Structure formats: structure tokens, C-alpha cells
Amino acid sequence: MLESIVDLPVEKQIFYAVLGFSWTVYLWEAYLSYRQRKIYRTTTHVPPELGKIIDSETFQKSRLYQLDKSNFGFWSGLYSETEGTLILILGGIPFLWNIAGSVTARFGLGSEYEITQSLVFLTLATLFSAVTGLPWSLYNTFVIEEKHGFNQQTIGFFLKDAVKKFMVTQCILLPVTSLLLYIIKIGGDYFFIYAWLFTLAVTLVLVTIYADYIAPLFDKFTPLPEGELKTDIEALAKSISFPLTKVYVVEGSKRSSHSNAYFYGFFKNKRIVLFDTLLEDYSPLNKSGEPQTEQPESDESSAESKAKPKNKKQGCNNPEILAVLGHELGHWKLGHTVKNIVISQMNSFLCFSLFAVLIGRKELFVAFDFNDSQPTLIGLMIIFQFIFSPYNELLSFCLTVLSRRFEFQADAFARSMGKASELYSALIKLNKDNLGFPVADWLFSMWHYSHPPLLERLRALGNVKQD
């Protein structure tokens, strides 16, 4: 069989190599997920070493939640791989490109208007992806997340949110793509340098404006009220010279009861964002079922979300929140954010450089049924998505390993600030709130976990006594 493949034309060899590698990755991922599902099915009692940090009820809830998520991931992954294979085999990409050409032709635009055709193609492709992915997203949100008490959305809010996300994505994606294609076309021999610089500039602009102008289109951001917590956060930031300018609380509870925190901004203009579900004293999920002393500011928000009563308080107390922020600020102090940006941009430059070498190879286009034309956008898709896929898999694994190392270092930084005990209890609370399962197959964990498993993090923090 190998000899018959070698005897095929080079474009066929490329096509079958891409298809074969894609299924190899899928089968590998399916095998890893099978190993982890086996852990979920067989680990039905709290292991002795976890007995003091997690109760049996929470353990069972997290086990069933993660088992449902894993089963869902298997079927959605199988569908995605099958869909992608059929698109390639049936010539879905050139078919959609020709449809885009027909649309532009209706407006009197010929093949010389390649960038316009590329934008139509991109719009149709993202619309197809959004429509085919919608049933899976609905099932995940309104069956799995609903079943396990995380979903706070109504169908109407979900659909409106999906439309809004699609529109905002198009408003960013189409102008950026058109400029990138234009730069590649007029850039000459060194177009890859200009293309890389352009994508770097776009990345920095989006990171700068996202939280101020894009995120508020979807969620409500309010300044953290004056009080002990805000004062302590400002003192914590000042103690390590973090240039904090504002602290926001984001209304994450209208979508989900999952919690998070992050910081953003460049140079001397950094902000911290806390999800309301992270804050024990601010989370609406802790107040549902209690009498309301005030009317919420937004009737629309209260109508579209559906906070549910919870038996146990969600979120962390103030000292634990400071410990979590000590971990997050540790990433900044230790240069993890800058290192990740540098790695990302080195990778981007390398990919554009290799793209410059490969874009002239006609057989790459012929492999995907582009026999008479070599559109730049299609070249970007073929090379970045298909030809680079082995490299992308290796890079993803290396970044996962690096991320785990960074997480341990950030935990150690919080410990050095005298917050080991509070971070210890915060990690346990967050694991319970998010129904994280504390037992993992070693191979699945090594390949997938960008954050170390709970038990490993607690061991690294040391033997801190908890109440």
C-alpha cells in the first residue's frame, strides 16, 4: 500500500498525508479521552489522599459532570473530524470559493477582484461553521451545563449573544484579512516581514482595546466598589510595583456560574477584572432566593439570565481572592506574559517565513482541487491549517508543558508573599465551584492540562493545615 501511495502524483500524496495526519491526531486524542473516561468511570470513591480536601458529594458531582463532558467531546469531535474529511474529499473548499466568485460576479467583479472574493468566501465559511456548530453549542449549554447547574442563560439570550459574536467577529475579521491579503500582494520579496509586523500590530491593538471596547458589548463591567477588598487589592499591587489603574467586576453570572479573574493592559495602564462568581460577597448566585433590597440596574439582564438558588456559597472570601490575585500577578512579575508574547511572535514570524517559501508551490493548490488559480487566502488556509498541522501539534504540546511550569512558578510567587494557606483553600473552593475532577490519567494530563492537577498544586504549596 505504501508503494502505491508513493507512486501517486505529488499533489495526491500531499492530500492523503494531510487527511491521514488529521485522523491520526483525532485517534490519538480519542485514545487519551478514553483513558480519562475510564478514570471517571472507575474512580467512584474519594481517594484517601483527597479525603481531607473534597467531600464525597462534590466528588461524585464532579465525576459525573466531567464524564458527561468527555462523552460529549467524543461525539462532537467525531462529527467535526468527519465533517472536515467530507469537506476535503467532496471538494467543499473550491466549491465555496466558486460560490463566492459567483456572488462577486453578480456585482460585475471579475477574478481580478480576488480580495473581494476572499472576503465573501470567508463570510460564507464562518457562517457555515457557525450554523453547523450551533446544535452542539446548544446541547453543551442547555443539556450538559444546565444539568450540572452551571448554565444561567435563556435560549433567547444565548441566540442573541451568538448573533452578536458573529457580527463582531466579522467586523474585525474582514478588514484585517483584506489588509493582510493586500500586504502580501504588494509586499514583494519581503512580504512575509510586513505581514508579520501587521499581524503583530493587530494583536497588540486587539489586546489593548478588547476589555474596554469589545468585551463590554457582551458583559457588564462595573468598578469594584470602594471598601476593604479594593483597598487590599491596591496595596497588593503596590507591594510588587504592579501599575494598577482600575479594578472591575464583570457580570459573568448571567451566563454561567464558572468563575475567573485576569488582568490586562500594557505599560503603566493595567486593570484587574474579577468575575462576580469569584467573589463570595458579590456573587448574585449566593443571593438568589434571598429577598432583594434593590432593583437591579438592568431589567434586560435579569430577564435574560436566570440565577438559581444554591445550597452552598460560591466564590472565595477576601483573603482567598488576594491569594488568587497574588498568583495572577506572579505571572506578570515573573515575565510569563511577555515570554508568551515573544514565543507567539517568534512562531508567527517563522510561519510567515515558511509560507513565503511554500506559497509558490502549485502542487499544494492542486492537491485541494485548485487547478487553475492560486488564491492567497486559500494558500494561507492550506499552509497554516493543513501543511503546518504536525508542527502545530508539537508546538501546542510544548506550550502546554511550559504553561504548567509557569503555573507552579506563579503559585510559588503567591506563597513567597505569605499567601500559601489562602491560595490552598482558594484552589480547593474553585475546584469545587467549577466541579473539577481531581484525579487524572497521567498521559491525558501531560498532553492536555495547561494547569497542573489540583493535588499537584496543593503538594507544591506545601503541607498547609486547613480548617
From TrEMBL:
UniProt family annotation: Belongs to the peptidase M48A family.
Membrane-crossing segments per the record: 14-32, 86-107, 119-139, 166-184, 190-211, 341-360, 380-402
Keyword DNA-binding: no
Predominant localisation class: endoplasmic reticulum
Example GO BP: CAAX-box protein processing
Record membrane topology: Multi-pass membrane protein
Keywords: Endoplasmic reticulum, Hydrolase, Membrane, Metal-binding, Metalloprotease, Protease, Transmembrane, Transmembrane helix, Zinc
Biased composition (Polar residues): 286-295
One Pfam family matching this protein: Peptidase_M48
Protein name: CAAX prenyl protease
Enzyme class label: hydrolase
GO MF annotation terms: metal ion binding; metalloendopeptidase activity
Domain Peptidase M48 per the UniProt entry, residue ranges: 224-462
Reactions this protein catalyses: Hydrolyzes the peptide bond -P2-(S-farnesyl or geranylgeranyl)C-P1'-P2'-P3'-COOH where P1' and P2' are amino acids with aliphatic side chains and P3' is any C-terminal residue
Alphabetical list of InterPro entries matching this protein: CAXX_Prtase_1 (IPR027057), Peptidase_M48 (IPR001915), Peptidase_M48_N (IPR032456)
Residue numbers annotated as active site: 328, 411 (proton donor)
Cofactor note: Binds 1 zinc ion per subunit.
Highest taxon, organism lineage: Eukaryota
Region (Disordered): 286-315
Cofactor requirements of the protein: Zn(2+)
